[in-house]
Write a structure and sequence with these properties.
Largest sheet: 3 strands, antiparallel
Strand content: under 5%
Radius of gyration: 24 Å
Strand order of the largest sheet: 1-2-3
Order of helices and strands: HEEHHHHHEHHHHHHHHH
Oligomer: single chain
Number of strands: 3
Shape: flat
C-alpha cells in the first residue's frame, strides 16, 4: 500500500465517509457504526425467514441433500477438517514461537495453508449453491448499500429513495454494487492496521489523551473503521513506547512484522526468565546469529 493510499484511507476513516463516483455521479458512503450494523442484522434475519418460507434450504439441510446424493460426503468433510486443523496448528505454533527465522517460515506455511482451506471451501460452496443464508446475505448487502449511500458529505440526504433503489435496472444496480464493493475492500483489516501504524495517525493521536479527544465522540458512536483504527493504533503505540527493545526500522513500519517481533519478544522473555543462567545467558537451539541479534538475547 502506497503512502498516498494510506493518507486517503486515513482521511476517509476520520471523516466517517468515503467519496464515490458512479456513472459520473458524486456519492458518499457513510461508514456504519455498530448501531447501523445491528439494523442490517435484523434485515438479514427477516430475509432469511422469507427465503425459508419460499422453500430455500438452509446450509445444513442443503449439505444433507449433497450427502444423500453422494455429491459431497465424509471424505470431503475430512479433507476440509484436516486442512483447517493444520492451519489452526500453525497459528498456535506461531503464537509461541520466538525465533525470527522460524516465525517467518511459519508465516509462509500459514499463507499456503489458508490458500488450501479456501480452495476446499470454494469447492464445497460451489456444490452447495444458493441457500437461505446466501439469499439473506445478498439481500441484506443490497440494503446495506442503500442505507450507506448519500448525496452529501454530511450523509443526511439519501442517494435514492427506497422505491428508486428497488427500481434500478440490473445493469445500473450491479455497477453501483461493483464500485461500492471495490471501495469498501480498501478497508480490509490489513489496510486498517497499516493506517493505524502510519505517522499520519500516530503523530496526532500521540498528542491526545483519549480516543474521545481525537475523534470528538464516544466510542459507542464511532464507526467500525474508527474503532479499529483506535484499537490497533493504541496497541502499536504501546509496543513502540513501552518495549524495552527498539524494533528494526523495517519492522517498526510494518504492522505484521511489528506484531510478530513483539510476540516473539514476549516469548523470548518468558524463555529467558525460565532458562537463563545467572549472567542472563541462554542457548537457543535452531537460532541463527541474526536471530539472536533480533531477539535481543545474549
Amino acid at each position: 500500500m502506497e503512502k498516498e493510499d494510506i493518507i486517503e484511507l486515513y482521511v476517509d476513516i476520520v471523516n466517517g465517509f468515503s467519496p464515490l463516483v458512479v456513472d459520473n455521479n458524486a456519492l458518499f458512503i457513510k461508514h456504519f457504526s455498530s448501531f447501523e450494523d445491528g439494523f442490517i442484522s435484523k434485515i438479514y434475519k427477516q430475509k432469511y425467514n422469507d427465503a425459508v418460507k419460499k422453500g430455500l434450504l438452509n446450509n445444513k439441510d442443503k449439505l444433507a441433500v449433497l450427502f444423500d446424493k453422494k455429491i459431497w460426503g465424509d471424505a470431503e468433510e475430512l479433507e476440509l477438517t484436516q486442512a483447517e486443523f493444520y492451519l489452526s496448528s500453525l497459528k498456535k505454533s506461531k503464537s509461541s514461537a520466538f525465533i525470527p527465522s522460524q516465525i517467518k517460515s511459519i508465516n509462509e506455511q500459514i499463507v499456503e495453508a489458508e490458500l488450501n482451506v479456501n480452495i476446499v471451501l470454494s469447492k464445497k460452496d460451489g456444490f452447495v449453491g444458493l441457500t437461505a443464508e446466501k439469499y439473506a446475505n445478498q439481500q441484506s448487502n443490497n440494503y446495506y448499500i442503500y442505507y450507506s449511500l448519500f448525496k452529501d458529505k454530511e450523509t443526511t440526504v439519501p442517494a435514492f429513495s427506497l422505491g428508486e433503489f428497488n427500481d434500478l435496472d440490473n445493469k445500473r444496480l450491479n455497477n453501483i454494487i461493483d464500485y461500492f464493493n471495490r471501495k469498501i475492500r480498501q478497508f480490509e483489516e490489513s489496510n486498517l492496521k497499516r493506517v493505524a501504524l502510519s505517522s499520519q495517525f500516530q503523530n496526532p493521536y500521540s498528542l491526545c489523551n483519549s480516543a474521545y479527544e481525537f475523534l470528538g465522540k464516544p466510542l459507542s458512536r464511532v464507526s467500525y473503521y474508527q474503532n479499529s483504527l483506535i484499537s490497533y493504533g493504541h496497541f502499536y503505540r504501546s509496543i513502540l513506547r513501552e518495549s524495552e527493545h527498539t524494533p528494526p526500522e523495517d519492522v517498526a513500519n510494518d504492522p505484521f512484522k511489528l506484531e510478530d517481533w513483539y510476540n516473539g519478544l514476549q516469548n523470548t522473555e518468558k524463555l529467558m526468565n525460565k532458562y537463563a543462567d545467572k549472567e542472563g545467558n541462554v542457548g537457543i537451539f535452531g537460532a541463527t546469529q541474526q536471530d539472536i541479534i533480533d531477539m535481543g538475547t545474549k
